[in-house]
Amino acid sequence: MITVNENFLKLKASYLFSDIAKRVNRFQEENNDKQIIKLGIGDVTQPLPPTCINALHAAVDDLSKTDSFHGYGPEQGYAFLREAIAQNDYSSRGAQVNADEIFISDGSKCDTGNFQELFSQDITIAIPDPVYPVYVDTNVMAGRTGNNQDGRYEGLVYLDSTESNGFVPAPPKERVDLIYLCFPNNPTGATATREQLTEWVNYALEHKSLILFDAAYVSFIRDESLPRSIYEIEGARRCAVEFRSFSKNAGFTGTRCAFTVVPKEIEVYDSEGKGHSLHALWNRRHCTKFNGVSYPVQKAAEAVYSDSGKKEVRALTDYYLENARIIKDKMSSLGYSCTGGDNSPYIWIKSGMKSWDFFDDLLNRAAIVCTPGVGFGNCGEGYIRISAFNSRENVIEAMNRISAM
Ligand code: MLT
Predict the structure, then answer these.
(1) 109 touches ligand 1 (CB under 6 Å)
(2) Residue 21 in contact with ligand 1 by CB distance below 6 A
């Protein structure tokens, strides 16, 4: 008899965004005359930058000739891309990351979800609330939690992110081993200052904890005083792993390319307290379970760092940020309190009613899809998230419909 991993039975029946998609599809079937505007999942709508498209075409041509053909690539990614990242995303900002500390992958969702495999079952884990559900669900699947009681899993340390702390939680009083942080934040759009990240890094160093820092939305930061990488903070190379993606800056949500930085200094400890290289362990896992991102996609990602690529990516993120400004201005003028949207493509809105009720209201009365805040955790109850990833026309139309409601 095949038996199930019972940890999976602790999970909610479906993943947040699948749940929303089902409701939206049902609504569309029942109202096929309505033009739904999707401001829910953070999926890009604008085409890939032309420089990336040119690089993709050229790389596909390479594959058509024997002397430039590429079969299996290095599991960790091609040197041309790893070096471009090290130079442009880190050295240029005074942060030290070496090319061989960068692992190219097919997405930050997979990397943030998979990374927990390296740790023992009995670690304590701090999870912000609200949070990107992948961090929680993958630890539930791995058996590191008890059951879900009233929206929270037993055994996790929840870090409330609320209006009162500006949606940036401080380190907890107790000791935790693993910490998930995401800035600019999904879902609240809040950003962390250098001082706030320094507090977290100091906490992690003091407790020999590890920070998993999700920086997927970093290209939306416009405030020059905000750090772009956790490695801009002293000591972070000893206690933090950083995840980044080409999804939201260059529009690779369907193309798939991301990377994870694992500095060689970081140690994790066995039951006798002996240190082991986290980089070596992740490398071992990556080579066993992953066969690399395709050559044309890595060439397209490399093109993001060319002069024209940089300009085009900046224009793309500016485009979505202008959408975010339009959404935030309109929702604020209607009396809603809003966070995010300035250095982030997400606007976190206090809905004044239960999240799913507001979601249903927007869908039924205006054919607009948002994401109910409570889907990201208990502290998200009473909020919705609106994503700026859509065309300008649709964003303006959505705001007109909301005004008319
Ligand atoms: C979101 O809407 O939260 C994101 O699109 C999720 C993701 O990037 O996987």
Answers:
(1) yes
(2) no
Instruction: Provide the 8-state DSSP code for 59.
Output: H
Nearest CA to ligand 1 atom 9: 109
Calpha distance 141→158 (Å, rounded): 18
Alpha carbon 365 to its chain's center: 30
HSE at residue 147, side-chain half, CA atoms within 13 A, is 3
Kindly give the distance from the C-alpha atom of residue 212 to the centroid of ligand 1, in angstroms, as a whole number.
17
Beta-carbon contacts of residue 124 (< 8 Å; ≥ 6 apart): 157, 174, 175, 176, 177, 178
Domains of the chain, start order = 6-47+308-404 (3.90.1150.10), 53-306 (3.40.640.10)
pLDDT band of 12, cuts 50, 70, 90: confident
Residue bearing the CA closest to ligand 1, atom 5: 42
Determine whether the shortest distance from the Cβ of 133 to ligand 1 is under 6 A. no
Distance 40 CA to ligand 1 centre (A): 9
pLDDT score at 113: 98
Measured distance CA(249)–CA(30) in Å, rounded = 35
Size of the chain, expressed as the number of residues it contains: 405
Ligand 1 centroid distance, CA of 227 (Å): 22
Chain mean position to CA 33: 34
State the pLDDT at residue 14.
79
Q: Tens digit of pLDDT for each residue in 193-206?
A: 999 999 999 999 99
Q: Is 112 in the pocket of ligand 1 (CB under 6 A)?
A: no
Gap from CA of 331 to ligand 1 centroid (Å) = 22
Q: Cβ(330) to ligand 1 under 6 A? A: no
Q: Which residue type is seen at 290?
A: F
In short, whether 41's Cβ falls inside 6 Å of ligand 1 is yes
> Could you tell me which residues come within 8 angstroms of residue 59 by beta carbon, excluding any fewer than 6 positions away?
295, 296, 299, 300
Q: Residues of 138-173 as b/e, b for ≥16 C-beta within 10 angstroms?
A: bbbbeebbeeeeeebbeebbbbebeeeeebbbebee
Distance 63 CA to ligand 1 centre (A): 32
CA 253 to chain centre: 11
**pLDDT recorded at residue 13:** 77
Mean of all residue pLDDT scores within the chain:
97
For the entire predicted model, the pTM comes to: 0.97
Tell me the per-residue pLDDT of 130-158, one tens digit each, with 9 for 90 and over. 999 999 999 999 999 999 999 999 999 99
Closest protein CA for atom 8 of ligand 1: 42
The finding on whether 380 has its CB within 6 A of some atom of ligand 1 is no
